[in-house]
Write a structure and sequence with these properties.
It contains eight helices and eleven strands. By secondary structure, the protein is an alpha/beta fold. The protein has a domain of about 220 residues. The protein has a seven-stranded mixed sheet. It has a four-stranded mixed sheet with strand order 6-5-4-8, covered by helices on one side. Strand 5 and strand 6 form a beta hairpin. Helix 2 crosses helix 4 and helix 4 packs across helix 7.
């Protein structure tokens, strides 16, 4: 009986061992669980990223919508101001002025239409200058005549920032997308690849260029040897401005005018490793605040009031800053 009992016990033990899963099956189950957990984590992470991107895109669309509404409001305000100025000057216009009414009307129309596009950058510059505690003014959309060798030209300056120690011409660009603004011959790998483009061949080292990339648009490439390149535009504006200011007795000794290109669009990405390109400061929203934050008021002899009177007399919107806040009051609201 004892021998029989031991045999039965052995059979039971062997049957249990035969029912145990093999190590390969256990490994397969474990691997399957790991894969399922990995896929679940990946799907969860993607869902979180999609939710985050959706929130950011909604915020950007809301900012763009507010910007468009503000631009429209400023356009209407400025047009009403221009119409008021026209009505006030109509009765006092002499016969000589009447002969030039066509040209003056063209200047006023240009000023009113241009102001629509400059109001956003105007507000950003005013806020940055106010945060920096600067005393002076910002003149926006200055239009003036200049006689060339063969004809008379109308010049327009987007913004003129004048403080006690600085005169700065700011050319604003409301460009969205990716903006590479360099001077030829830089050392970064990205810049070297860009400069292999056929459109940049022959451009001398040290000269500025811009490559503008937007979704669903062909790339735009602007060289400083063309009239549309921003640093060339602002340099030409400074030359014309100096000729105008030389006629102001108080500004005769004014020798240096800063140049700045400001990319103001909320959906623009500026790629530029240098603070200056061809003696022109290149800034976006964040760099503008940094630039103006580094400026300081002083007792320099910049004739702030004389230049402000000249700008106001050439159709500009003039906004007083700091100690000059009550001296110049803009007709446009600041939002």
């Amino acid at each position: 009986m004892a021998h029989h009992s031991r045999r039965r016990s052995g059979k039971v033990s062997n049957g249990y061992a035969e029912r145990m899963p093999s190590p390969w099956i256990l490994a397969t189950i474990a691997l399957t669980l790991v894969l399922v957990a990995t896929v679940w984590f990946s799907l969860r992470t993607r869902a979180q990223l999609r939710e985050q991107l959706g929130t950011e895109l909604a915020s950007q669309r809301n900012e763009v919508a507010q910007r468009e509404a503000l631009l429209q409001e400023h356009h209407h305000q400025w047009q009403a101001h221009v119409n008021t100025v026209q009505a006030g000057h109509a009765e006092a216009m002499s016969a000589e002025r009447a002969k030039r009414e066509g040209e003056l009307e063209r200047i006023r129309s240009w000023a009113a239409s241009s102001m629509r596009w400059e109001s956003l950058s105007r507000d950003l510059i005013i806020r940055a200058a106010s945060e920096a505690g600067l005393d002076g003014f910002l003149a926006t959309n200055i239009c003036f005549r200049a006689d060339g060798t063969a004809a008379t030209f109308i010049h327009q300056i987007d913004h003129l920032l004048v403080t006690s120690n600085t005169v700065m011409v700011i050319e604003s660009k409301s460009w969205d997308g990716l903006i590479f603004h360099y001077r030829k011959g830089g050392g970064s790998a990205v810049q070297q690849r860009i400069e292999r483009l056929p459109a940049l061949r022959g451009l001398p080292d040290g000269k500025a260029y811009v490559v503008h990339l937007r979704e669903n648009h062909p790339p735009t490439i602007l060289r400083s040897d063309t009239d549309q390149e921003p640093t060339r535009q602002v340099t030409r504006q400074i030359m014309q401005l100096k000729e105008q200011l030389a006629q102001i007795p108080e500004a005769v000794e004014l020798a240096f005018v800063e140049a700045c290109v400001f990319y103001s669009h909320p959906q623009s990405v500026l790629v530029n490793d240098e603070s200056k390109v061809d003696r022109t400061r290149i800034v976006d929203r964040d760099r503008l605040r940094q630039l103006l934050g580094e400026m300081r008021n002083s007792t320099s002899r910049v004739p702030v009031e004389a230049i402000g009177r000249w700008a106001a007399g050439h159709g500009a919107d003039v906004y007083g800053l700091g100690a000059f806040r009550e001296h110049w009051r803009s007709v446009l609201t600041l939002k």
